[in-house]
Design brief:
The chain is mainly alpha-helical. Helices cover 65% and strands 0% of the residues.
Length: 113
């Protein structure tokens, strides 16, 4: 497969996911945001990173991080970028895996590179 097609598809997935996740600060997280939050929680567990530690790493309050990681509030691009960097994850791969696992209740495992 052509590398430019793969990159284009990944960017389209990223864009579509971000658009669907940006539903407003007070709205409950969308299904895509829930899938991303689940991936983040699993990776936090795998890396043994607590909510308090993640909050410190991203420079936000524990409540702010907890609401986003639990899916109570949607993640925005800045949140996602900061969390991905703190957990040493690739944001495009994260969103691609969330897209693939969306609606799949049996999705398990870590975010792989």
């Amino acid at each position: 497969m052509d590398v430019s097609v793969v990159i284009s598809d990944a960017l389209k997935t990223l864009w579509d996911t971000l658009v669907s996740m940006s539903s407003g600060a007070r709205d409950p997280a969308t299904q895509k945001a829930q899938a991303v939050a689940e991936l983040i929680r699993r990776e936090m567990g795998a890396q043994r990173v607590s909510g308090r530690m993640l909050a410190q790493l991203v420079g936000k309050s524990e409540k702010y991080v907890r609401e986003r990681v639990s899916g109570q509030r949607p993640l925005d691009l800045n949140d996602l970028e900061a969390i991905a960097q703190a957990l040493r994850l690739d944001i495009v791969i994260m969103l691609t895996q969330a897209e693939q696992s969306e609606g799949d209740a049996s999705a398990t495992g870590r975010v792989r590179f």
